[in-house]
Design brief:
Oligomer: heterodimer
Distance between the termini of chain A: 14 Å
Shape of chain A: elongated
CATH topology of one domain in chain B: Rossmann fold
Order of helices and strands of chain A: HHHHEHHEEEEH
CATH architecture of one domain in chain B: 3-Layer(aba) Sandwich
Strand order of the largest sheet of chain B: 13-12-27-26-25-14-15
CATH topology of the largest domain in chain A: Glutaredoxin
Number of helices of chain B: 30
CATH class of the largest domain in chain A: Alpha Beta
CATH class of one domain in chain B: Alpha Beta
C-alpha cells in the first residue's frame, strides 16, 4: 500500500528523481514515469519542482501530465484493470462484458474499490482486436473475455 | 476617422530572398519562398477562412477551415501549413471545400453558445465571421449532448462537469471557457510572442481546455498579463473587461506608450472620447505588435480621481492649497520668478524637464530657462539614470545613444545583459530577446541578483556573473583582460576603425595581472572561470550585443563602466552592423528625447556644448537673446545652492525629485529653502508637498507630440481626447512664457518640432508629415539619412576613430564595515513603473502592493528575521522600514528592494555619492545594516503626516460661469 507522503518529502524525492534523469534527451516523460513508479501517481506538488529543474513552465508540465491518461493524480488500487471499450471489442460484445466486470467488482469506470484492491479504467484499443473483447490486468493482456475469465480476474484482484 | 483594421495574413512573413510565383484562384502572386499559401492568398487579396491561424504566431493547422485544393496534389491540405511552390495552382473555393468547411463550422458551433447579440465580442468575433463566411445555416447536432456550454445538464438539470465558470481573477480581462474553441492561439501567443509559457492545453480530445498554469485562475498562474493571449483570441473567451463594460470601439488612433523606453506603438481604441482599450500596433517598429501589462492595461491613472485638474497656489507649504484660475497662477509665477531674480540674481531660478513629457514640451522648458530665465539652470531626471551613458558613449563613440534598433536582436548570437532586468523593466524587448534565445542565441547576465532575466523558462542564461554591487568596472575590465591576453580581439576591426596607439595603451593596461579573472574574483565574488568563459563566448560566439541598464550607470563609476562596455564592443568588432552594438535600455519613455532636447545645463539640443559660439549663435539669433556661455546648475547643485540660500525658485515639469532623487532629507531641505517651487504634474506628488504653485498636467492621451525611445526612434504621440485639465503641457509652458513676457506663439507641437529640426542637425529632416508617412524614424535623420539611421557607426565612428579609454577600477567610498555590513541594491518589478505615480493608481497594485526587502536566508537567520517581518534598514544617510522577503535570488551580503511606493522611502537610505563625471547618484550600492523592527520609522510616520497635511485643498472655488 502506498504511504501518504508529506509535501516536503514529495518535493525532496521529486528533486532527486529529476536530478537523476534531467540530462536525458526529452527528460519529462521518463521523470513522470519514475515518479508514478515511486508514488503510485504524479503528485500535483511535484509539478513545480519538475518545471523549475527543467527550466520549463508549470503549465507545460501540467499540459503533458493531463494529456496522458496513464499519469494519475492519486494512487490507483493495488491492481489496475483496463477494459477495452473501442470499436472492435464493442462489435464482439465488449459493452456487455464491461457491464459485467463493473458489476462483479462493484465499482464503475474510473473508480477504485473501497478496500483499495482494484481500479477499473476504460482503454481505447490494446492492439488485441483479433482476440476481442480484451482487457489488461496490471500490464498483462487478456483476450477473448467471457464470464469465466471475468471470474478469474475478480478472484485475482480480491486475493 | 474609423477603426484601423490591420490585415491578418494568417502566418508570419517569410524572410527568404528567393521569390516564388503561384496562382491562387486564377490570380498570379509572387511571394518570398517559405510563405504559406494562406499568406500568399491574402497578399493577392483573397481571404481563406481560418480560425487557428493568425500572423503573430506560427502556423498550427488545427482548425481545418483553411483547407485548399492544389492542382496535381491529392486531398485538401491546410493552407496555413503548406508552403508555396513555383507554378503551384491553388483553388480556395470549390464545392468540396465548401462542404468540408461548413461541416467543420457546424461542429464548432455545436459546442458554442448562441448568445451573439449579448456577447462582448459581438462585432469583433472571428468565429461569428467564419460562420457567416462559410454560410452556416443550421446545426444538426443540437445541444443536448456533451458540451462545455451549459452549467446544467439540459436533460436532467444535473451538474455539467465539463462546464467551467468564468475566470475573472485578472483585473483586466476575463477567461470564459464556455466560449473557447480550443484553437490554441492564446497558448501559442504566450509561448511564441511573450515567452512566458503560462498557458497550456490540458487533457486531450473533447476534454481539451485552455489552462492557465496548472488549472489555476489566471492571477495565480505564471501569467504576466501582457495581453498577447487576449489579442490572439478569435472569440469572446479572453476579453478585456473594459470592452465588456463599454462595448466595441468605433475609432482608433495610433500613438506611443508613455511608460518605459521601449516606446511601444499602440492603437488607442476609442468610443467617442472614452478609451476602450489599448491594442499593440503591428507596424510599431519597436514592439512589432507586442505589449506588456503596463502599456496594454495600466492606463486607468489618466482618469483617476486623484488627478488634479485646476491650478493651485499657496503662500506657505504648510497652508492648504487654494484653487485659482490659470491666469492667476501664471501671473503669480511670473511675478515671483521675476522678484526672485531681481532680489537674488539671475541664476536664482531654474527648471527641470521631464522624461515623461514629449520632445516638444521638453524643448520648451529648456527654452524657457535659457531664453526666459536667462541662465542655463536646466536639468532633467536623466541626471539620476543615464547621464553616464551620455558621457561614456560620447567619449568613446561620439554619440550619446544606443547603436542599434530593437530589430537588431533578431540577428544576435550572444546577448550580454549588464545591470538590467528587461523581463521586469523592458518587458517587450525582453520578449523579443527571449525569442532569439529560444532560437539558439546565448545569454550572459551580469547582475548581483538572480533576476527573472537570468532564469526565464526556455531562455536561461548560459552564464550568470553574480558580481558584488559596485564591482562592474573590475569585472568588465577583466572580461577585456581575457579577450586581450587570449588573443580573441578583432585586430582588423580595431586597425580600421579605432586609434591603434590608444588600443595598444589600453591592451597593455587591461593585460596587467590585477585585471585577471583570478584577481578580480577576490573583490567581485565572481568565479574566475565564469569570467573567462563569458569573455570567450562574447568574443567568439558570433554577433555579440550588449544591453545594459541602471545597474551600470547608477554607480560612482557609472561613466567608467559605460566606457568599459564600449571598449569591449570595439575590442571584438561588435559595432556597426545588425546583431551587435551597445544598447542602453532607457528607463523612461522619453529619457532619450529629453537628453536630445538640450535638457542638460551644459548642452543645447543635439548634445552641443553651450560654450560653442557657433551653436549659441543659432539660438541667439532665433530667440533674440544673449545666451550664457557657462553651464548652469545640475539638480544636486540647485539643491545645494538652495540650502545655501542662493537658489530660490524652480519650475519642475513631470518629475518627482523628492521621491526619485537620492538622499531624500537633503532634497526636502533644498525644496523647503526655496521661495517659489512650481510643480507641473498629473498628481500631487511627493515633491508637491514642498510646492507653492501646482500646475495640473496632461496625460499622453491628451496631447500631440513625439517621444524618442531607447533606439533613438522618434515616435508620434497623438491626442485622442481633450486635456481634462484644459491644456496640454506644451501649452501650459507656453502660457507661462507668455505671462513672463516672452512672445511664443506655437499653434501646434509640429511647429515646435519644425524649430527643433531647423536648429539641430541630427533632427534636420524630422517633420510630422514624415512621421505620418513612414511611422517613425531614428535620429540622425537629415540629408544624409532622410529616413533615419537604424544602426549607427556603420562605416566608421561618429567621432572619427573609436577611442579606447583606460578603465581603472576604484572601489566606491560606500563600503561595508562592522556597522553597515550589507550592500543594498535596488531595482524594479514588472507591474509597477518607477516611483509608481501612475501604476499605483491602477489595478496593477494587485501584483505588487508594497515594496519588500529581499534578503538571503543566511543573513536573515543571523538577524532573527522571518519572512514577512518588519525590518529596519539603516545606512549612514538614514533609515526606513519595510517587510522582509527571504529569498536565494540575492547572494549573502546583498539585499535588494524596489522603490515603487512612496512610504518605502528607499532614498532616505541612499547616500549622496555619485558618478565622478556626471553626478548620477549611486543608487545601486548602499552599505546598510538590517534589524527586526516593530513598524514604520519616525521619519516615515512624520513624513506621512506632513504629506497628508500638505495635500489639503481649501473649499473649491466657484466656477466663473455660475
Amino acid at each position: 500500500m502506498t504511504m501518504q507522503h508529506a509535501s516536503t518529502d514529495i518535493a525532496f524525492r521529486t528533486a532527486q528523481v529529476v536530478d537523476g534523469l534531467k540530462d536525458l534527451e526529452g527528460p519529462l516523460l521518463p521523470i513522470l514515469h519514475e515518479l508514478q513508479e515511486e508514488f503510485g501517481c504524479v503528485p500535483p506538488e511535484a509539478l513545480p519542482v519538475i518545471a523549475e529543474a527543467l527550466n520549463i513552465s508549470n503549465a507545460e508540465v501540467h499540459g503533458v501530465v493531463t494529456f496522458y491518461h496513464d499519469y494519475r493524480n492519486q494512487p490507483a488500487g493495488r491492481h489496475v484493470l483496463k477494459v477495452c471499450r473501442a470499436e472492435a471489442c464493442q462489435s464482439m460484445g465488449g459493452d456487455a462484458i464491461a457491464t459485467q466486470i463493473s458489476r462483479a467488482l462493484g465499482i464503475g469506470f474510473h473508480e477504485t474499490a473501497k478496500d483499495g484492491s482494484v481500479t477499473l479504467e476504460p482503454v481505447y484499443c490494446l492492439g488485441l482486436c483479433a482476440c476481442a473483447p480484451a482487457a489488461m490486468l496490471d500490464g498483462e493482456v487478456i483476450g477473448r473475455l467471457d464470464a469465466g475469465k471475468i471470474d478469474e480476474i475478480v478472484q485475482e484482484v480480491r486475493s | 476617422m474609423g477603426l484601423i483594421h490591420e490585415i491578418d495574413y494568417g502566418t508570419p512573413a517569410s524572410k527568404a530572398e528567393k521569390q516564388v510565383t503561384l496562382t491562387v484562384d486564377g490570380f498570379e502572386v509572387t511571394v518570398p519562398e517559405g510563405t504559406s499559401i494562406m499568406r500568399a492568398s491574402m497578399e493577392a487579396g483573397i481571404k481563406i477562412p481560418k480560425l487557428c491561424a493568425t500572423d503573430m504566431v506560427d502556423a498550427f493547422g488545427s482548425c481545418r477551415l483553411c483547407l485548399v485544393e492544389i492542382e496535381g496534389r491529392a486531398g485538401t491540405p491546410s493552407s496555413c501549413t503548406t508552403p508555396v511552390a513555383p507554378g503551384m495552382v491553388v483553388k480556395t473555393q470549390t464545392s468540396r471545400l465548401k462542404d468540408i468547411r461548413k461541416g467543420v463550422m457546424e461542429l464548432y458551433i455545436s459546442d458554442h453558445p448562441l448568445d451573439c447579440l449579448t456577447c462582448a465580442a459581438n462585432g469583433d468575433c472571428e468565429l461569428q465571421d467564419m460562420a457567416g463566411v462559410v454560410g452556416l445555416r443550421d446545426v444538426r447536432y443540437g445541444y443536448d449532448g456533451d458540451n462545455h456550454v451549459f452549467a446544467k445538464d439540459r436533460s436532467d438539470g444535473g451538474e455539467n462537469f465539463r462546464w467551467m465558470p468564468k475566470d475573472e481573477s485578472n483585473p483586466y480581462f476575463t477567461y470564459d471557457p464556455s466560449k473557447c474553441i480550443v484553437c490554441s492561439r492564446c497558448v501559442r501567443a504566450c509561448e511564441e510572442v511573450q515567452g512566458t509559457f503560462a498557458l497550456t492545453i490540458e487533457g486531450r480530445g473533447f476534454e481539451s481546455r485552455v489552462s492557465p498554469g496548472m488549472h489555476q485562475p489566471f492571477i495565480d498562474s505564471e501569467c504576466v498579463s501582457c495581453g498577447a493571449c487576449v489579442q490572439a483570441c478569435p472569440t469572446a473567451t479572453l476579453t478585456e473587461k473594459s470592452v465588456i463594460e463599454i462595448g466595441q470601439a468605433e475609432h482608433s488612433v495610433v500613438t506611443t506608450c508613455a511608460y518605459c523606453g521601449v516606446g511601444c506603438s499602440f492603437k488607442a481604441e476609442m468610443r467617442g472620447d472614452e478609451l476602450v482599450r489599448m491594442v499593440p500596433y503591428k507596424d510599431g517598429k519597436a514592439n512589432r505588435g507586442h505589449s506588456c501589462v503596463k502599456g496594454r492595461f495600466a492606463w486607468g491613472y489618466a482618469t483617476h480621481k486623484d488627478r488634479i485638474l485646476n491650478p493651485m497656489i499657496r503662500e506657505k507649504i504648510t497652508d492648504p492649497w487654494r484653487e485659482v484660475s490659470w491666469e492667476e497662477a501664471f501671473a503669480h509665477i511670473a511675478s515671483e520668478f521675476r522678484r526672485i531674480q531681481y532680489q537674488y540674481g539671475k541664476g536664482a531660478v531654474g527648471g527641470i524637464t521631464s522624461s515623461r513629457c514629449t520632445n516638444e514640451e521638453t524643448y520648451l522648458v529648456q527654452k524657457l530657462v535659457r531664453q526666459g530665465f536667462g541662465n542655463n539652470n536646466v536639468d532633467t531626471c536623466a541626471r539620476v539614470c543615464h547621464s553616464p551613458t551620455g558621457y561614456g558613449l560620447g567619449q568613446t563613440f561620439g554619440t550619446s545613444a544606443g547603436t542599434q534598433d530593437f530589430d537588431s536582436v533578431e540577428h544576435t548570437d550572444v546577448i550580454m545583459v549588464i545591470g538590467a532586468n528587461p523581463s521586469a523593466a523592458h518587458p517587450v524587448f525582453a520578449s523579443r530577446m527571449k525569442k532569439r534565445i529560444r532560437q539558439g542565441a546565448k545569454l550572459i547576465v551580469l547582475d548581483p541578483r538572480v533576476t527573472e532575466t537570468v532564469d526565464s523558462v526556455h531562455a536561461k542564461a548560459t552564464h550568470h556573473l553574480p558580481l558584488l554591487p559596485g564591482t562592474n568596472v573590475a569585472v568588465i575590465t577583466s572580461l577585456a583582460h581575457v579577450i586581450v591576453t587570449e588573443g580573441l580581439f578583432d585586430e582588423a576591426f580595431i586597425r580600421e576603425r579605432c586609434d591603434w596607439s590608444e588600443f595598444e595603451d589600453y591592451a597593455a593596461f587591461v593585460a596587467e595581472e590585477h585585471h585577471s579573472p583570478e584577481a578580480v574574483e577576490k573583490l567581485s565574488g565572481v568565479p574566475a572561470d565564469a569570467i573567462r568563459e563569458a569573455a570567450r563566448l562574447y568574443a567568439t560566439g558570433g554577433n555579440g550585443a550588449i544591453y545594459y541598464g541602471l545597474g551600470v550607470t547608477e554607480h560612482s563609476q557609472g561613466s567608467t563602466t559605460v566606457m568599459a562596455i564600449a571598449n569591449l564592443a570595439m575590442l571584438t568588432g561588435n559595432i556597426g552592423r545588425p546583431g551587435v552594438g551597445v544598447n542602453p535600455l532607457r528607463g523612461q519613455n522619453n529619457v532619450q528625447g529629453s537628453c536630445d532636447m538640450g535638457s542638460f545645463p551644459h548642452e543645447l539640443p543635439g548634445y552641443r556644448h553651450i560654450s560653442g559660439d557657433a551653436v549659441r549663435d543659432i539660438y541667439e539669433s532665433l530667440w533674440g537673446v544673449k545666451l550664457d556661455n557657462e553651464p548652469g546648475l545640475r539638480i544636486p547643485n540647485m539643491l545645494d545652492a538652495a540650502v545655501e540660500g542662493s537658489f530660490k525658485g524652480i519650475y519642475i515639469q513631470g518629475e518627482d525629485i523628492l521621491q526619485s532623487d537620492p538622499d531624500t532629507k537633503h532634497v526636502a531641505a533644498g525644496l523647503a529653502a526655496m521661495e517659489c517651487v512650481v510643480v507641473h504634474d498629473l498628481f500631487l506628488n511627493e515633491t508637491a508637498n514642498y510646492a507653492h504653485v501646482f500646475l495640473p498636467g496632461s496625460t499622453f492621451l491628451e496631447k500631440d507630440g513625439t517621444f524618442t525611445n531607447a533606439e533613438r526612434r522618434i515616435n508620434r504621440v497623438r491626442k485622442v481626447m481633450a486635456p481634462k485639465n484644459g491644456y496640454g503641457d506644451w501649452e501650459v509652458t507656453q502660457l507661462l512664457a507668455q505671462a513672463m513676457g516672452i512672445g511664443w506663439n506655437y499653434a501646434h507641437p509640429s511647429e515646435i518640432m519644425d524649430e527643433i529640426a531647423r536648429t539641430t542637425p541630427s533632427f534636420a529632416s524630422v517633420t510630422y508629415d514624415l512621421l505620418d508617412k513612414v511611422g517613425s524614424v531614428q535620429w540622425p535623420c537629415n540629408e544624409k539619412a532622410p529616413e533615419g539611421t537604424p544602426i549607427m557607426h556603420v562605416d566608421g565612428f561618429v567621432r572619427g576613430k573609436g577611442k579606447f579609454i583606460r578603465t581603472e577600477y576604484v572601489a566606491t567610498d560606500e563600503k561595508t564595515g562592522p556597522r553597515f555590513p550589507l550592500l543594498l541594491t535596488t531595482g524594479r518589478i514588472l507591474s509597477q513603473y518607477n516611483v509608481g505615480a501612475q501604476t499605483r493608481r491602477t489595478e496593477n497594485v494587485i501584483w505588487h502592493d508594497e515594496d519588500r526587502l529581499e534578503i538571503h536566508p543566511h543573513d536573515a537567520e543571523q538577524r532573527g528575521i522571518r519572512d514577512g517581518d518588519w525590518v529596519r534598514i539603516q545606512s549612514r544617510a538614514g533609515e526606513t522600514t519595510l517587510r522582509a522577503l527571504i529569498t536565494e535570488r540575492v547572494a549573502p551580503g546583498v539585499i535588494y528592494t524596489t522603490f515603487h511606493h512612496p512610504n518605502t522611502q528607499a532614498n532616505v537610505v541612499t547616500t549622496d555619492f555619485s558618478d565622478w563625471a556626471t553626478n548620477c547618484p549611486e543608487y545601486k550600492v548602499t552599505a546598510v545594516q538590517v534589524a527586526p523592527s516593530n513598524g514604520p520609522s519616525d521619519w516615515q510616520v512624520n513624513y506621512d503626516e506632513q504629506a497628508r497635511r500638505s495635500r489639503r485643498i481649501a473649499a473649491r472655488r466657484l466656477e466663473a460661469a455660475e
